[in-house]
């Protein structure tokens, strides 16, 4: 993506847990090194293969609270008993250098970004069906049954917010969804410059 403007674009990739937004974004970023990923803070414990500072900044509840009070987050949300937040600095630094930045966040956070930064491009990743999503979340094997149930209970309210997004991509076939995401980002990025 060519960027002639001094300000980068901000892309928000959201959608229910287990929909494959992380996988899609990873594939997109591997192809598009001109887009950088915002690393969030979370109070959740790291999963087996996760690395601090790479997947997330894993912080205590106290540290997270402190960052809220200091106004360090552009957005933050409580999701299934844990807190997640995007650092203002990460986004501001990228945008001011003309770097495009992508945020992979849940829906409440996406709504906060929409309000604070109307120029942000919001993309909602949908599953082909709720049943499919349930089986994906279960097969992923990274969460306990209790956590899976909690995440599934949030899905419907997340789904209702789809209408506030600029684009919806149904992740039925991963490669097709990637192509759609890529086209959306390239087209929108160019339009918004
Ligand atoms: P997970 O625990 O599966 O890594 O993430 C749970 C949910 O939190 C996912 O939907 C993920 O996209 C979202 N998430 C990750 N980082 C952030 C963030 O900084 N802010 C918000 N609002 N959600 C986030």
Quantity of strands, as a count: 9
What topology, given as strand order, has the largest sheet?
Answer: 2-7-1-8-9
Instruction: Report the total helices.
Output: 7
Main β-sheet: number of strands, strand sense, barrel status?
A: 5 strands, parallel
What's the architecture, going by CATH? 3-Layer(aba) Sandwich
Instruction: Supply the CATH class.
Output: Alpha Beta
In the CATH hierarchy, the third-tier topology is known as Rossmann fold
Radius of gyration: 16 Å
* Strand content range: 15-25%
Q: How would you describe the oligomerization state of the chains in this entry?
A: single chain
For the record, give the distance between the C-alpha atoms at the N and C termini, rounded to a whole number. 11 Å
Show unreliable segments. Answer: none
Which small-molecule ligands are present, each listed once? guanosine-5'-monophosphate
**N-to-C SSE series?**
EHEEEHEEHEHEHHEH
Shape field:
globular
CATH superfamily: P-loop containing nucleotide triphosphate hydrolases
- Overall pLDDT, averaged? 91
SSE-based structural type: alpha/beta
What proportion of the residues is helical, as a percent range?
40-55%
Total domain units: 1
